[in-house]
Design brief:
Elements lengths: L7 H4 L4 H7 L7 H12 L4 H11 L3 H8 L13 E6 L2 H5 L2 H12 L5 E2 L5 E6 L10 E4 L2 E4 L6 H9 L32 H6 L4 H9 L2 H11 L11 H9 L6 E6 L8 H8 L1 H15 L3 E6 L4 H16 L15 E6 L9 H8 L23 E5 H5 L1 H7 L1 H6 L8 E8 L5 E6 L4 H8 L9 E5 L19 H6 L8 E6 L4 H15 L5 H18 L6 H16 L3 H5 L2 H9 L1 H9 L39
Cofactor: [2Fe-2S] cluster
Keywords: 2Fe-2S, 4Fe-4S, Iron, Iron-sulfur, Metal-binding
Protein name: NADH dehydrogenase
């Protein structure tokens, strides 16, 4: 935590008119303008909304309809300082509850409350991407990791005395093992253009533009077998090919909305090696014939925003972005677009809607983005890690990359290791390595003399794995064979101190908090599951709840529009399957065997249900029919 970047005064230097002119449509300017006013006084007033309405020509109801969708924006006076404490599983396993309790006690307020002096408002954070150094919390743009509880009051005192956010960049520890593809992650030095170019940077792009042979570059990507590293694992070359077959204009979008709890790999790339992403995007844009691209970045990554903003400016000044790059006939404009706190924006069509300046609801598919994407035009959407692979693939050849993995899944993958593990961190490993090697050899096993109880291979999304799965090959097909999936490879390790019912409760709280509310199965299902689990951890469970949870979960999986609703039941249901005795102890005996659940009504309700339909009170009348 030792590098200073742009502060709030510089961020507010641009005028409203300049912000409006920067974006393609009035709708697309709404989020940047809302950020502009939010940064001025930590909330958006009625006058601000009216001003944005005047600037964009949109109605006040349109502005509010967009703004209130996102968690980052607040439309009433709040504290001068926003305190956000991470309450997702990686932080909870490493002392996050104590961090929250200390902050709450020190400030004298609960979540969504403001101190009487108007200095602080306390919010929940749905993952700050600091999982390997958990627990974490932020104050404005300053991020704090691994802070002992006794030091928290003195940190708060600094802000009481008027400390101004300095935007200190916590790049985290270097990559935990020796990199093969992502060599820039050895240190943070390649975030500077000069150092990146010394390390073979932009040579792949230079070679592509010198020959002008986009087909040859495409062929190397096809030979490499690189697939989407955000969780979908769909072959990249097929998406590229589908987009370039459609008429221009075409767009390239980088999904940097890395919101899955336990995932922080993209943050490492953006903060330590941002030019590998920029170069990868320029290569992909040249292949598909896109002249305009966007990086959609989650608001919880302010440090990534500043570093990327600087790196893009450096590349533009060096003639590596913009018109006629390096004297060629290829032009590519790259812009950075900041989200505003919505986990659903990790879903590609939700992200596109948000980038267009709309509420980030998922779209029905088909049509796919390759046909009808940004502004209805063909669009290539990939995540940060996938795009950052391209410079190394073109420099070394597709065959080289393919040989790094196994026949099922070519290449390497960045694995995020957090939770109860001796050596948490980011690891680059060849796909096909065993899960045991990752946990025991690289991660150092379970600390404190405890034993392994389970693993979450994809953050909060996948069915959990057990110790008996340790010899599984870490490739997409092998994980799928046991009913789980690898996702973005956010592996959260759980030792025998974890209560699996409590885990299900927190996952349900996260899903309930993050559901966009568009479709009934997810909107009502996540709330119902949360309310039922709240009753159980408070010692008010009933045997009928188990069958009800299974019915709701099946309904959500089969009828939800997007992956959030479809995957939200996975951990609660697999927990019930694997740890039935723990659930029965909670429901029949009202006892938590691990001593984690409070079994009382006080001190546990952190996320009040948004609609309070009272499903548990009406249990005898509830009948779910599975389609």
């Amino acid at each position: 935590m030792n590098e200073m970047t742009t502060d709030k005064k510089e961020k507010n230097a641009r005028s409203e008119k300049e912000i409006l002119e920067e974006w393609s449509t009035p709708e697309q300017a709404v989020l940047p303008l809302l950020h502009y006013y939010m940064e001025k006084k930590n909330y958006i007033s009625e006058a601000d909304v009216s001003r944005i309405s005047q600037l964009t020509g949109l109605s006040v109801s349109d502005i509010l309809g967009i703004g209130t969708f996102y968690q980052h924006f607040v439309f009433h006076p709040t504290g001068k300082n926003s305190v956000r404490v991470c309450l997702t599983t990686p932080c909870l396993f490493r002392g996050g509850k104590t961090t929250f309790e200390t902050l709450s006690k020190s400030l004298g307020i609960g979540l969504e409350e403001t101190t009487p002096d108007g200095l602080f408002t306390l919010y929940p954070a749905q993952c700050l991407g600091q999982c390997s150094e958990a627990p974490s919390f932020s104050i404005n743009d300053d991020v704090y990791v691994g802070i002992p509880p006794e030091k928290i009051p003195s940190i708060l005192d600094e802000y009481r005395k008027g400390k101004i956010c300095q935007t200190i960049v916590p790049c985290g520890k270097p990559l935990a093992n020796e990199p093969v593809v992502f060599t820039g992650l050895r240190s943070g030095e390649t975030r500077y253009l000069e150092r990146y170019r010394e390390d073979h940077g932009y040579r792949a792009l230079e070679g592509l533009l010198k020959t002008g042979d986009a087909e040859a570059a495409f062929e190397q990507i096809r030979l490499s077998g690189v697939a989407g590293r955000g969780g979908g694992a769909f072959p990249m070359y097929r998406k590229l090919d589908a987009v370039r077959k459609n008429p221009p204009p075409r767009y390239l979008v980088c999904n940097a909305d890395e919101g899955e709890p336990g995932t922080f790999k993209d943050r490492y790339i953006m903060e330590r090696d941002p030019h590998s992403l920029i170069e990868g995007m320029a290569i992909a844009a040249r292949i598909i014939g896109a002249e305009e691209g966007f990086i959609y970045l989650r608001s919880e990554y302010p440090h990534s925003f500043h570093i990327l903003e600087k790196a893009i400016a450096e590349a533009r000044s060096a003639g590596l972005l913009g018109p006629r790059i390096l004297g060629s006939d290829f032009s590519f404009r790259l812009r950075l677009y900041r989200g505003a706190g919505a986990y659903i924006c990790g879903e590609e069509t939700s992200l596109i809607n948000s980038l267009e300046g709309k509420r980030a609801y998922p779209r029905n598919k088909p049509p796919h983005l390759s046909e009808v994407g940004l502004w209805g035009k063909p669009t290539e959407e990939q995540n940060v890690e996938t795009l950052a692979n391209l410079p190394a693939i073109l420099r070394n050849g597709g065959d080289w990359y393919a040989r790094l993995g196994d026949t099922k899944s070519p290449g390497t993958k960045l694995f995020c290791l957090s939770g109860h593990i001796a050596r948490p961190g980011l690891y680059e490993i060849p796909l096909g390595m065993s899960l045991r090697s990752l946990i025991e050899d690289l991660g150092g096993g379970i600390p404190g003399g405890r034993s392994l109880k389970g693993l979450l291979p994809a953050g909060s999304a996948s069915k959990m794995l057990l110790p008996r799965h340790l010899d599984l090959s870490l490739d997409y097909p092998s994980i799928a064979e046991v009913g789980a999936f690898l996702g973005s490879a956010s592996v959260i390790v759980m030792d025998d101190s974890v209560c699996m019912v409590d885990l299900a409760y927190w996952i349900a709280a996260f899903s309930h908090h993050e559901s966009c509310g568009q479709c009934t199965p997810c909107r009502d299902g996540t709330e119902d599951v949360y309310e039922i689990l709240l009753k159980i951890v408070q010692g008010e469970g009933k045997p009928a709840y188990l069958d009800l949870l299974k019915s709701i979960g099946t309904y959500m999986r089969e009828a939800s529009i997007c992956g959030l609703g479809q995957s939200a039941p996975n951990i609660p249901l697999s927990s019930m399957e694997y740890f039935e005795d723990e659930w029965k102890a909670h429901i029949e005996n009202h006892v938590c065997p691990a001593g984690v659940c409070s079994m009382r009504r006080d001190g546990i309700l952190l996320f009040p249900p948004r609609r309070s339909r009272g499903i548990v009170a009406e249990l005898p009348q509830m009948h779910f029919s599975v389609p």
